[in-house]
Amino acid sequence: MKAYTRKVEKHVPIHPEYVAAVLDELADEDAVFTVDTGMCNVWAARYITPNGRRRVIGSFSHGSMANALPMAIGAQFTDRGRQVVSMSGDGGFTMLMGDFLTLVQYDLPVKVVLFNNSSLSMVELEMLVAGLPSHGTALKNPDFAAVARACGAHGVRVEKPKELAGALKSAFKHKGPALVDVVTDPNALSIPPKISAEMVTGFALSASKMVLDGGVGRMLQMARSNLRNVPRP
């Protein structure tokens, strides 16, 4: 897991794993994390350190999208003095973006850390391992930090790794609702602990279809983004 969280100062777009690792380091010891269904589940499971005091809440059994922000609202209403962090995917956040106004309306100090890769990445990965080229998973996102500021909240956009820690610290210090819009790598793959032959076959098939359809560049970008996951002696 450390392959994606070290020596990343110049990696743009930012590794989502690095975002989760820095968030784990800077968040309160008793923080409540709410995680969107999809890749945010994976990053939280791999990088948020349990200590007996933190809580991680998600839609783990049902798998409903856009759950992180509504759950964060409920958690913050329960205890206004406790740090609540919504680990939101861009797909989930945009589905219920109006709920961000609830934070402003009731001055709930929820901190939204938005993993913005302009993609429904978990759906795309499921399509790839099933042998299907991705289709309909790309998103045309606005500047979410600007949207947050327009709503009357604290908003900051992060595009470089060296800006991340400062942006999170400023959001955590802010007394009201805050959103940190982190532009993350759309080619980052969640490599499962065990890879089956069916997964390899499906991915190879979808990759071949993408290359034959003119997507050589996309596959090269994906390879560059994930080669660091290959174990080295």
UniProtKB/TrEMBL annotation:
InterPro entries: POXB-like, THDP-binding, TPP_enzyme_TPP-bd, TPP_POXB-like. GO terms for molecular function: catalytic activity; magnesium ion binding; thiamine pyrophosphate binding. CDD domains: TPP_POX (cd02014). Gene3D superfamilies: 3.40.50.970. It comes from the Bacteria. It holds the Pfam family TPP_enzyme_C. Residues 36-182 form the Thiamine pyrophosphate enzyme TPP-binding domain. PANTHER family: PYRUVATE DEHYDROGENASE [UBIQUINONE]. This is Thiamine pyrophosphate enzyme TPP-binding domain-containing protein. It comes from Streptomyces haneummycinicus.
